[in-house]
Amino acid sequence: KAGVTQTPRYLIKTRGQQVTLSCSPISGHRSVSWYQQTPGQGLQFLFEYFSETQRNKGNFPGRFSGRQFSNSRSEMNVSTLELGDSALYLCASSPTSGSPSQYFGPGTRLLVL
Amino acid sequence: DQQVKQNSPSLSVQEGRISILNCDYTNSMFDYFLWYKKYPAEGPTFLISISSIKDKNEDGRFTVFLNKSAKHLSLHIVPSQPGDSAVYFCAASSGTYKYIFGTGTRLKVLA
User: What's the mean pLDDT in A15-32?
Assistant: First the structure.
């Protein structure tokens, strides 16, 4: 079974731009969660989508948004990028919402200049 | 406010010895705890979990201990192997399906 894939793997943007990251979950998994990893903060939960609906949301500003498609693929969008948005963005898939066994992708490393 | 804390950013252990990674939490509503391992350039992989109704869960070389009164959990790796060198994250959930992660501890097992 193919694992979770994330594209692109690396991205460089400038302040004020917007970015869209993509995540393809493991086949059959309907839940996709997004996390931001930074050196000082660890992994911080952004949001979770299940069956195209946002089920949970972390404490991030509205500039961070996401969506899930009918094939369970998910996209995350960050608008009006700030320097502090530089981080590794990880997505994780699981068969159902809230499953403890999340399978993480390799992440997209975003650098905002 | 960091609800899940891993106060040791790094730990070095000799091969064959025990590795003990610690995690403290502040939210008494947390009822499910997990440990993840992360290698460079890879996403975290699930290692072991424990429910708040238990105080110990074992899986091979990995054992997680939960002390609810102290709001503390620990991961024991015995014996430690060089391949265990990675960053370890603990995570907690209060049934809302939202997992709060710690900042991670980098374990280095010396051959």
Answer: 96
